[in-house]
Amino acid sequence: MSASPDDLDAFRQAFRRHAAGVAIVTVQGPDGAPEAFTATSVASLSAVPPLATFNMARSASVWPAVATAGHAVVHMLGARNRALAERMAGPRESRFDGVAWRAGPGGAPVLAGATAWMGGRILERFEVHESALVVLRVDRGEIGEADAPLLYHERSYRAPGDVV
Amino acid sequence: MSASPDDLDAFRQAFRRHAAGVAIVTVQGPDGAPEAFTATSVASLSAVPPLATFNMARSASVWPAVATAGHAVVHMLGARNRALAERMAGPRESRFDGVAWRAGPGGAPVLAGATAWMGGRILERFEVHESALVVLRVDRGEIGEADAPLLYHERSYRAPGDVV
To answer: Is the pLDDT of residue A17 over 60?
Structure first.
């Protein structure tokens, strides 16, 4: 199951051709502290019931919190949230410095200023190798001020452009 | 576990604020026929080993083929592939009409003209309610002609725009 350099190269190059929407996932840590990370893997799994998914490395600093949390919140980001996306991908210790938030579902932080958030119970954590697929059962949410959705592509943040 | 109208509304509105990269997933059907569908849920799970994920409804016409296939191919799409994305989201019977493809990993079709493809063995199919999360172990791939990555947002196909 080990990856050859060729496998890795093909994989990385293929994903460089993909663009992704940017979201922030939050949970309440086991010590009660707010925890967050920036995710480019958020996707809808089903609308009935409302289920969303995200992927993460189990080596991520936030994994111990996600592994034990009962609830999570997924925030959809707009172009205006670029700095927030970078902050929540930076050093874990300072992710919430100066960030406005309130306790949401099950204590998971709801960040101010996202274009939308949805939260609920973590339904499943499927572990595969050193990563995990997490399924969220959404039972609450709110729409924020509209904005162009934030994208990540080729190591830069962008907004959508023309209809093709 | 049933969804209230409020849950659904929040969920749909939140995902309307999200933009997604567009991909096409292919497998060889149990009868040997090529099968495909357009997916906006393709994400990286890990680079070592190279793992990719996608979500689908188990009510999808292609699910019986994905449920039994040993291998799959994920194609990253460019703006030039918009018509192909629409075709592979249309009636299943005619998805391959006039489409150029060849047999790839385990017989899964490799479509011509994508910006990249990656294929390999289906490692896991996690079923949750009426949907499934599928994990692909990538062991082969190829890069095609470059193009702006194809996005889906607010029911329209777009290319990325300005850096924000």
So the answer is: yes
Question: Looking at residue B143, which CATH number applies to its domain?
Answer: 2.30.110.10
Verify whether the Cβ–Cβ distance B163 to A157 is below 8 Å. Answer: yes
N-term to C-term CA, chain B: 40
Reply yes or no on whether the pLDDT at A67 is more than 60.
Answer: yes
Has residue A9 been placed in a domain? no
Q: Which of B16, B41, B128 sits opposite A43 (nearest CB)?
A: B41
Between chain A and chain B, how many beta carbons pairs sit less than 8 Å apart?
240
A7-35 residues labelled b (16+ CB within 10 A) or e (exposed)? beebbebbbbbbbbbbbbbbbbbeeeebb
How many domains does the structure of chain A reveal? 1
Q: According to the model, what pLDDT value does residue B10 have?
A: 75
pLDDT in tens, B122-145: 999 999 999 999 999 999 999 999
Kindly report the nearest CA distance between residue B58 and chain A, in angstroms.
Answer: 10
- Between CA A108 and CA A71 the distance in angstroms is 6
pLDDT at residue A9, as a whole number: 79
Q: Which residues contact B12 (CB under 8 A, 6 or more apart)?
A: A47
With an 8 Å Cβ cutoff, is A86 touching chain B? Answer: no
Is residue A144 included in any domain, yes or no?
yes
